[in-house]
Design a protein that fits this description.
Number of helices: 6
Strand order of the largest sheet: 1-2-3
Largest sheet: 3 strands, mixed
Number of strands: 3
Number of domains: 2
Radius of gyration: 26 Å
Shape: elongated
Distance between the termini: 74 Å
Length: 148
């Protein structure tokens, strides 16, 4: 776009003012990165949360992360100067560490459904037993058979 070209032109001018031509001739390419927007950060949070869920798959815990949880992690894990780098630490601090403590205390158990939300300025963890499909007995099947 026109705006991108103008930004690139300004960067080129600043580089020529700051560095010698000999130094600039050694550079093969200059790549300009745009700042991440809220949508980009949300996608990164979703990828990192999927990794948490995947690492704990052997415990058969179904994870549900509310949008409020994701928004909170985006807010605390994004720094305009550092980009998305702090996101992993934020997820470790606010999701993985408390979850580990709850697993050790037995507040979250295997084969459960865990909803991680956000309320009162912090993340909330609500664990419920996983809904297991009820077994239908042979007797019940026979009673449903219209061929009787």
């Amino acid at each position: 776009s026109h705006n991108d070209q103008r930004v690139q032109s300004n960067i080129d001018q600043d580089l020529r003012k700051t560095f010698s031509p000999e130094f600039l001739n050694r550079i093969d390419e200059i790549i300009t990165f745009k700042a991440l927007d809220k949508e980009d950060i949300t996608q990164i949070v979703e990828i990192l949360l999927a990794e948490v869920s995947h690492r704990l798959r052997n415990l058969e815990i179904d994870f549900e992360f509310t949008q409020e949880c994701k928004d909170f992690l985006c807010d605390v894990g994004y720094d305009p100067m550092m980009g998305a780098r702090p996101l992993r630490r934020a997820i470790q601090k606010h999701v993985e560490d408390p979850l580990s403590e709850q697993l050790l205390r037995g507040q979250v158990t295997s084969r459960s459904h865990l909803t991680i939300g956000f309320k009162g300025g912090k993340l909330t963890f609500v664990s419920e037993p996983k809904q297991v499909p009820q077994q239908v007995s042979e007797q019940e099947v026979k009673s449903l058979d219209p061929g009787d």
